[in-house]
């Protein structure tokens, strides 16, 4: 649901191939834009690239070009009015999502192969400068990629197109009604070679899989710090959420008034909300490494991995990537648990530990031969990276206090909640 109209908006696709700077497809929504204006866009972009001074908004005369780039395509919105730029960019990124849902990959070839579908989608997502339905699940109910068949009578679009609840169809029925909720947190961490935390961030999302009949209303309660302060429960364990973004189904006015997350959910899978926490995180998996390089002979690597979370939790599918010199060969490994393999194309040793309980410590030793003639080039010291997943655990301490399901027929429904912490950009620098 994009709230305000754009007085004049044209959508263009341009290939970035230097030998073919042509418009692939376009749509003039209000008819008051000169279609030849787009010819000025690429020359302006080329001049900006030469000057290393690119801008997301460029102007030629009274025409404004608001653009984003995806793979080898430029998606360009044109306007002559004082348009809401944030709304335009939100719409362009939403268009990318819709096309990726339809064509898997959005690139020049997929546009050329699906011209008819693309034109239909461009007609439906915006009407006379007003953004309309941009939910791919709803669009797929009446815009398909199969050939159109002749039908008796005019086909009717689904009611969701004109409903206030445009993200959910009416008349949905299931024999067993359930809601599955995943609270997923990714830990972004950068640790210096001396062991100090340089960057620490938690990026979280709450994802839903809804299997509910009718038009239910859901109410979600979290241990939100602001809510607990309002209700006088400051002593309880709380989480202060930052940069919260909601799915369009959430009633924002109610959340702003009393911090209640109330919504009619989309059917099937969706992301209800995302959030971020800028907080100092104790590294969940701590790595210490010693890399000894013997000139013209060999390199020996010793790595110690320690899990710094409680013993009742277990990290699964842990992969520790330790960088090695690009000219190393003849690998030999010894580990106290798990297995190692050398990935020369990535220049790393990958130490895999299937199950890593909390409070445990493991060792790995690697031995590599080096060529007799050592390279004169100095290689940059790459960091050790770690991938992992810890089920039934959140590093921020966020909790689902309740998940209520209200539907006028009064059926019984089961809510299921699962917590997962995983690695994001998790790096530890080496000496």
TrEMBL record:
Keyword Protein transport: yes
PROSITE patterns on file: CLAT_ADAPTOR_M_1, MHD
GO biological process terms, semicolon-separated: intracellular protein transport; vesicle-mediated transport
Alphabetized SUPFAM superfamilies for the sequence: Second domain of Mu2 adaptin subunit (ap50) of ap2 adaptor, SNARE-like
Membrane topology annotation: Peripheral membrane protein
Gene3D superfamilies for the chain: 3.30.450.60, Mu homology domain, subdomain B
Main location: membrane
Subcellular localization: Cytoplasmic vesicle, Clathrin-coated vesicle membrane; Golgi apparatus
Domain of life the protein comes from: Eukaryota
InterPro entries given in the database record: Adaptor_comp_med_subunit, AP2_Mu_C_sf, AP_mu_sigma_su, Clathrin_mu, Clathrin_mu_CS, Longin-like_dom_sf, MHD
One of the record's GO cellular component terms: clathrin-coated vesicle membrane
Keywords, ordered alphabetically: Cytoplasmic vesicle, Golgi apparatus, Membrane, Phosphoprotein, Protein transport, Transport
Domain MHD: 176-429
Function: Subunit of clathrin-associated adaptor protein complex 1 that plays a role in protein sorting in the trans-Golgi network (TGN) and endosomes. The AP complexes mediate the recruitment of clathrin to membranes and the recognition of sorting signals within the cytosolic tails of transmembrane cargo molecules.
Family designation: Belongs to the adaptor complexes medium subunit family.
Protein name: MHD domain-containing protein
């Amino acid at each position: 649901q994009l709230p305000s109209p754009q007085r004049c908006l044209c959508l263009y696709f341009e290939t970035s191939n230097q030998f073919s700077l042509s418009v692939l497809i376009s749509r003039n929504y209000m008819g008051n834009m000169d279609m030849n204006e787009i010819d000025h866009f690429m020359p302006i972009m080329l001049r900006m690239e030469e000057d290393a001074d690119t801008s997301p908004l460029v102007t030629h005369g009274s025409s404004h070009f608001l653009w984003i780039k995806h793979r080898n395509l430029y998606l360009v919105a044109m306007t002559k009015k004082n348009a809401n730029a944030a709304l335009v960019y939100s719409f362009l990124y939403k268009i990318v999502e819709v096309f990726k849902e339809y064509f898997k990959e959005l690139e020049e070839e997929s546009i050329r192969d699906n011209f008819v579908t693309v034109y239909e989608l461009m007609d439906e997502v915006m009407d006379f400068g007003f953004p309309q339905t941009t939910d791919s699940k709803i669009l797929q109910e009446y815009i398909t990629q199969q050939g159109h068949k002749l039908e008796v009578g005019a086909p009717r679009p689904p009611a969701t197109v004109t409903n206030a609840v445009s993200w959910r169809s009416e008349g949905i029925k299931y024999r067993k009604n359930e809601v599955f909720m995943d609270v997923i947190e990714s830990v972004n961490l950068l640790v210096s070679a001396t062991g100090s935390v340089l960057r620490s961030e938690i990026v979280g999302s709450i994802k839903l899989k809804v299997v509910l009949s009718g038009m239910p209303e859901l109410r979600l309660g979290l241990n939100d710090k602001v809510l607990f302060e309002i209700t006088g429960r400051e002593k309880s364990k709380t989480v202060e959420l930052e940069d919260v973004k909601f799915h369009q189904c959430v009633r924002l006015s109610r959340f702003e008034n009393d911090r209640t997350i109330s919504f009619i959910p989309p059917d099937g899978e969706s992301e209800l909300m995302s959030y971020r926490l800028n907080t100092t995180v104790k590294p969940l998996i701590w790595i210490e490494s010693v890399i000894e390089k013997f000139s013209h002979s060999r390199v020996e690597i010793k790595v110690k991995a320690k899990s710094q979370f409680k013993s009742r939790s277990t990290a699964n599918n842990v992969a520790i990537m330790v960088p090695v010199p690009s000219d190393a060969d003849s690998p030999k490994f010894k580990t106290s648990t798990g297995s190692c393999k050398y990935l020369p194309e990535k220049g790393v040793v990958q130490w895999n530990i299937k199950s890593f309980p909390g409070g445990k410590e493991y060792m790995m030793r690697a031995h590599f031969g080096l060529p007799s003639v050592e390279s004169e080039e100095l290689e940059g010291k790459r960091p050790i990276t770690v991938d992992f997943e810890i089920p039934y655990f959140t590093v921020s301490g966020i909790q689902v206090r309740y998940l209520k399901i209200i539907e006028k027929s009064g059926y019984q429904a089961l809510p299921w909640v699962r917590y997962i912490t995983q690695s994001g950009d998790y790096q530890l620098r080496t000496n």
